[in-house]
Design brief:
By secondary structure, this protein is α/β, with parallel strands linked by helices. Helix content is 38%, strand content 14%. It is built from twelve helices and twelve strands. The chain has a seven-stranded mixed β-sheet with strand order 2-8-7-6-5-3-4, sandwiched between helices. Strands 9-12-11 form a three-stranded antiparallel β-sheet, covered by helices on one side. A two-stranded parallel sheet has the order 1-10. Helix 2 packs antiparallel against helix 9. The protein is globular. The N and C termini lie far apart (58 Å). The structure holds pyridoxal-5'-phosphate (PLP).
């Protein structure tokens, strides 16, 4: 007899991340410092100097972390004007997404999310044995009317990515508000705002202001993108004290390590770094858009720190990905997101983007 593993695990294809720099270096023999990784939406400007100083000075590796994350939770509550009991910390926001599924869903449940949405929604849905209800996208956008129509008695959770990855699309706050008003209040609605920091002032999320009115929403935020702390794995969820206490019942006691907590606090003490990163990102995004237009490449207007652009066919997309890899540039193929004609490029520094465009132009020229 062999071990009886859960049936739902058979459907799960593990998450595939961007190729690590070290891996490409080993493969093609280019030194690591000559490789440009534009594959995982990391902050190309690194981390704030304040964060760097705080983590360099840290020494208490022999102590367990503060399992309640007291200082970081208080810092978040201060910066975002929230109550501490509305906040839960996660080992990356991925942890929050998974915990949300685990507090409401099991094998009898349905979980709704969009086609082309962030891959982790499907993974956690399958992991809890729930049924995935994938709503076809409307020209790559979330179709919230379609979400609403798909709600049944079995619906326990709805995932909304705003902005979404890998499409970069954004849902208007008014539309989102109207949707949440209509959703039955027994369904948990997760609004994943991993790219919030990149939004211009007039587009910023207002969801924190709706928490009083709707006990069934939870927002997830990440320190991995604009804050530049992807390696440390830290994010947070914001919702009603009831939902937060349920999540606290099942999360691992020390899910966020001490160094991550310290770095996250310091990064909130230097929001200027985040704002400047966003400004530079948005300037570079315009330049990349102009270049895609000049090259006659279709792209999806993005509100994040990445752009998905089409090469017209799956085979050309794959050839382009490999051509760039051989030049030391790592992009992200997104056929596993149902977008095989596309590649996703994270917006790098001015210099990185120049080299990317130069090599992309070369590829396009060669294929003509
Ligand atoms: C990158 C990303 C995340 C999360 O990342 P963590 O590193 O786990 O915080 C969450 N949601 C979306 C849509 C993302 O693109």
């Amino acid at each position: 007899m062999s071990v009886s593993f859960l049936e739902n695990l058979e459907k799960i294809e593990p998450y595939v991340g961007g190729m690590p720099i070290q891996e490409l270096s080993r493969k093609i023999g280019i030194p690591e410092d000559q490789i440009i990784k534009l594959a995982s939406n990391e902050n190309p400007y690194g981390i704030s100097k304040k964060v760097h100083k705080a983590i360099s000075e840290y020494e208490e590796y022999f102590l367990y972390p503060d399992g309640s994350g007291f200082d970081l939770v208080n810092k978040i509550s201060e910066v975002f004007n929230l109550k501490p009991n509305q906040i839960v910390l996660g080992n990356g926001s991925n942890d929050i997404l998974e915990l949300c599924a685990r507090v409401v869903a099991n094998h009898e449940s349905e979980i709704i999310f969009s086609e082309h949405a962030f891959a982790v929604y499907g993974l956690v849905t399958k992991a809890v044995g729930a049924k995935e209800i994938v709503i076809p996208a409307l020209d790559f956008h979330h179709d919230l009317d379609g979400f609403f129509k798909a709600i049944t008695k079995k619906t326990k959770l709805i995932f909304i990515a705003n902005p979404n990855n890998p499409t970069g699309t954004l849902i208007d706050q008014q539309k989102l508000f109207e949707f949440i008003q209509k959703v039955p209040s027994n369904i948990l609605v997760v609004i994943d705002e991993a790219y919030e920091e990149y939004l211009e002032a007039h587009l910023k999320s207002k969801v924190f202001l709706w928490l009083e009115e709707f006990e069934n929403i939870i927002v997830s935020r990440s320190f991995s993108k604009a804050y530049g702390l992807a390696a440390l794995r830290v994010g947070f969820g914001v919702g009603s004290s009831k939902t937060i206490s349920k999540i606290n019942q099942i999360r691992q006691p020390f899910n966020v390590n001490s160094l991550a907590q310290i770095a996250a606090i310091e990064s909130l003490n230097d929001l200027k770094f985040v704002e400047e990163s966003a400004i530079k990102n948005n300037e570079q995004k315009k330049i990349l858009e102009e270049n895609f237009n000049n090259l006659n490449l279709l792209f999806i207007k993005s509100y994040g720190n990445f752009i998905s652009f089409s090469l017209g066919s799956p085979s050309t997309a794959l050839r382009c990905y490999e051509y760039l890899l051989n030049k030391g540039i790592i992009l992200r193929p997104i056929s596993n997101y149902g977008m095989p004609d596309f590649l996703r490029v994270s917006i790098g520094t001015e210099e990185e983007n120049k080299i990317f465009i130069e090599k992309l132009t070369e590829f396009i020229g060669n294929t003509k």
